[in-house]
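[Automated response] Your request has been received and processed.

Submitted sequence:
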Amino acid sequence: MKDKRQMRIREIVSQYDIETQEELIRHLEESGFNVTQATVSRDIKELQLIKVIGSNGRYKYAIPAVSPPVNLDALRRRLADVFVSLGRAQNLLVLKVMPGNAHAIAAMIDAVSIEGLIGTIAGDDTLLLICQDEASAIRLENDLT
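Generated structure:
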């Protein structure tokens, strides 16, 4: 549901001059999504929407042309806001974050290109980080904590 909602948000801000979260909520509700302001606020943050000046001279939401660069320091800062726990079992790491944040953190981890990390799998609040070996998992565990 979240992925479909966020896809619809991208479509809405591309098609309409959306100036407020309330307008975005109204468009989402017209599309069949029952959302709260808090949910839309999180979606805006995760989608990294920005405000630009529209043709009418007023600010509107927009999709950034270029994604901001992600490095290990940016990942650590973002993770500090949502971190719950991190556990390791041999070459696997299980990272728990606040609900609704796992996909955004996984995307950041994937963008950093961490040596020894084979892939990530994200749910709502849990990520599985698969490393090529235990030594890589230990290095990544140390990098994230």
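Summary generated for your ticket: The CA atoms of residues 21 and 37 lie 7 Å apart. The helical segments are 2-15, 21-30, 37-47, 72-82, 102-112, 134-144.
If you did not submit this request, please reply to this message.
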